[in-house]
């Protein structure tokens, strides 16, 4: 299995998790997931076929609806909470980024620094403001396309959790840690240093 297809399978599961809020009883239409991911119909079908065989999703062909299963939601949550650890079906996301942006030693140091962090509710307003700045500044950041894509995914995950009626707050620190790590690997411009300092303050 290539790293690229593994990443796309996880991106699919992550988006499905966000759209369903991790709830099995909230099916999503095939076209909605496809539109948000930009995948071809063939790729979508291949991914669904694999994930359904692994019991991570359930597909209703009659209505073209996709459900996340409890096992699927649990694995996505595990991946989001500890991005540097591989799950049963998905590779460690932190490792993928590290190969592109820093050596293994730096990645491990970053991992150790960001484990066990907590984001108190008193910091949510600051975090929300930071996410808005990140969103509006993506085009100005000195990052690769892959880094920007990963950054956008982490922003979407946090926004989804913060706006959810049933937020799983244990997921937010993992995504904040990933954002910090991405900024650390690319912080070269004054704007990137400023964003890194802000997210460090929120964590601290």
Shape: globular
Largest sheet: 3 strands, antiparallel
Radius of gyration, taken over Cα atoms and rounded to an integer in Å: 17 Å
Specify the oligomeric state. Answer: single chain
Instruction: State the helix count.
Output: 10
Classify the secondary structure makeup into a structural class.
mainly alpha
For the termini, the CA-CA separation is 39 Å
The structural domain count equals 2
Task: Write a structural description.
There is one protein chain. With 204 residues, the chain is mostly helical. It folds into two domains: 3-72, Winged helix-like DNA-binding domain superfamily/Winged helix DNA-binding domain (Arc Repressor Mutant, subunit A); 92-203, no CATH class. The chain has ten helices and three strands; from the N terminus they run H-E-H-H-E-E-H-H-H-H-H-H-H. It has helices at 3-20, 30-37, 41-53, 70-81, 93-101, 104-114, 124-137, 145-163, 171-186, 190-203; strands at residues 28-29, 57-60, 65-68. A three-stranded antiparallel β-sheet has the order 1-3-2. The longest helix has 19 residues, at 145-163. It is globular. The N and C termini lie far apart (39 Å). The relative contact order is 0.12.
Keywords for this entry:
single chain, 204 residues, mainly alpha, Arc Repressor Mutant, subunit A, 2 domains, three-stranded antiparallel beta sheet, globular
Give a short synopsis of this structure:
66% of the residues lie in helices and 5% in strands. The protein has 204 residues and is mainly alpha-helical.
């Amino acid at each position: 299995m290539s790293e690229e297809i593994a990443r796309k399978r996880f991106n699919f599961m992550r988006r499905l998790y966000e759209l369903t809020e991790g709830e099995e009883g909230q099916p999503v239409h095939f076209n909605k997931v496809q539109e948000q991911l930009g995948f071809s119909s063939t790729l979508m079908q291949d991914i669904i076929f694999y994930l359904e065989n692994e019991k991570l999703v359930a597909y209703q062909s009659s209505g073209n609806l996709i459900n996340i299963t409890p096992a699927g939601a649990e694995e996505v949550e595990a991946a989001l909470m500890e991005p540097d650890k591989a799950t049963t079906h998905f590779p460690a996301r932190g490792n993928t980024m590290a190969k592109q942006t820093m050596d293994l030693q730096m990645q491990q140091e970053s991992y150790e620094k960001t484990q066990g962090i907590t984001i108190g509710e008193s910091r949510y307003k600051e975090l929300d403001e930071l996410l808005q700045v990140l969103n509006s500044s993506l085009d100005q950041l000195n990052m690769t396309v892959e880094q920007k894509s990963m950054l956008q995914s982490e922003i979407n995950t946090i926004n989804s959790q913060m706006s959810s009626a049933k937020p799983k707050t244990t997921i937010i620190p993992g995504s904040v840690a990933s954002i910090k790590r991405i900024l650390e690997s690319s912080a070269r411009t004054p704007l990137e240093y400023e964003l890194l300092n802000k997210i460090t303050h929120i964590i601290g």
